[in-house]
Amino acid sequence: MLKTTMKIDDTVTILKLLGDKTRLTMMKIMDHYDCCVCELVEIFKVSQPAISQHLRKLRDLGLVKEERRGQWIFYSINKTHEYYPFIEQILQQLPSQADKLKALEEQGTRISCC
Amino acid sequence: MLKTTMKIDDTVTILKLLGDKTRLTMMKIMDHYDCCVCELVEIFKVSQPAISQHLRKLRDLGLVKEERRGQWIFYSINKTHEYYPFIEQILQQLPSQADKLKALEEQGTRISCC
DNA sequence: TAAGTATATAACTATTTGCTTATGAATGTA
DNA sequence: TACATTCATAAGCAAATAGTTATATACTTA
């Protein structure tokens, strides 16, 4: 059990971000795999701007980091974030979302950029 | 570290409820003290219906339970809830809100009903 | 029983949120 | 250079949210 003391306001901000199915699932996925935007678009069946906007909120808080690789921008969880242990604790209790990535591979979409 | 596996949808619902400063603070307080509605109204400086509506959302999910004691209705955390360990894990990392109750006592408001 | 206190619910409102489409900027390639 | 692809941003919209005031319900007490 962690013993971090978290500020209430910070905690509220983080929980609000995680309290969205798309973002929570994205975080769970990105906890294990770097993802480019187009993969996430495929997975969640929403528009590309919708994904970008979710990523922006996560990035604005520093919860994820981006890294350009040529044409693509890959996102991953920022494990150096002050509250990463807190977030990790939550993500660890969620079921693996590896099936979603597997579905992409089978469908051939993931290969397109990774 | 807990190893519970939580459904994504359930987790989202809970995090959404906790992602509100009033509700998160209420939960932290109720984790240690039974509270009647009027106390919470005093603490949060919002209208009584606002508090009742927050409590209803928490109660609808079973996260808190109510108990009438005469004229008052006391709310407390439902420690038998399937996901209570998950919630407790979050609450434990928050700073104590005991000062808010102490302020009530000094102000004489808490005594009125407890 | 009548009046007072505590709480819940209903109705309304302003703000926030998550999505969409349209468009711009950055990179890769013919 | 021209064109295609990837991603970000802007603008607009519908739904959700958190608050308010008004009112109903339940209990206590004079």
From TrEMBL, chains A, B:
InterPro entries: ArsR-like_HTH, HTH_ArsR_DNA-bd_dom, HTH_MetalResp_TranReg, WH-like_DNA-bd_sf, WH_DNA-bd_sf. Keywords: DNA-binding, Transcription, Transcription regulation. PROSITE patterns: HTH_ARSR_2. It comes from the Bacteria. Residues 3-102 form the HTH arsR-type domain. SMART domains: HTH_ARSR. Signal peptide: none annotated. GO terms for molecular function: DNA binding; DNA-binding transcription factor activity. NCBIfam families: HTH_metalloreg. This is HTH-type transcriptional repressor AseR. It comes from Ornithinibacillus halotolerans. The gene is aseR.
